[in-house]
Amino acid sequence: AQKITQTQPGMFVQEKEAVTLDCTYDTSDQSYGLFWYKQPSSGEMIFLIYQGSYDEQNATEGRYSLNFQKARKSANLVISASQLGDSAMYFCAMRPSRGYNFNKFYFGSGTKLNVKP
Amino acid sequence: DTEVTQTPKHLVMGMTNKKSLKCEQHMGHRAMYWYKQKAKKPPELMFVYSYEKLSINESVPSRFSPECPNSSLLNLHLHALQPEDSALYLCASSQEKGGFAYEQYFGPGTRLTVT
Questions:
Q1: Chain centre to alpha carbon of residue A114
Q2: Is residue B8 reached through a cis peptide bond, with omega within 30 degrees of 0 on the bond before it?
Q3: Strand pairing of B110-114 and B10-13?
Q4: A13-51: per-residue pLDDT in tens?
Q5: How far is Cα B110 from Cα A47, in angstroms, rounded to an integer?
Q6: CB contact under 8 A, B101 and A33
């Protein structure tokens, strides 16, 4: 069974500082993808970043980077130079690359990030 | 272009009404999804269509009826809903190719209120 755990229900960060959002996962699949999504109060889920389980380098997309530690089964999101517009709910998700449920995404419970001016 | 569109944005319906939610994507994605999301919770998977065939139904009550008329369109037909069905309904799509875990792209959602 797949399980995604986000242990920080809410976090505060000062504008322009960096912040790390934690995500651990449990899967018996050998090949999978890890994702982070941002959901502002408007409701739309915005794809931020992807990490493949066989990727040796950590993924980066602008101010977002994914700190991937495969042995520890963690995929933390790092946001550098926080902006007020980063205030939102953030979800970590996982999808197997193959197998019966390879179309299924598994989501964590989310972390509400508040950026303070 | 990574756009998924959904209509309507807001919907208020009575428990005896029949309504439909619509979703459209033109990214050539062959997997399409319906999710239900309550406030401050993660999206909850309802249905997955793969190449226009229903591949996953997460034991959703029959008052929700999905339909995939073609590879770009996804509908969710609603009938005799309950107040607890009030939620944000999100549509998503993804490429589908075995051996690679593609990301999903979401639409803006439909906020449904059942009175």
A1: 16
A2: yes
A3: parallel
A4: 999 999 999 999 999 999 999 999 999 999 999 999 999
A5: 18
A6: yes
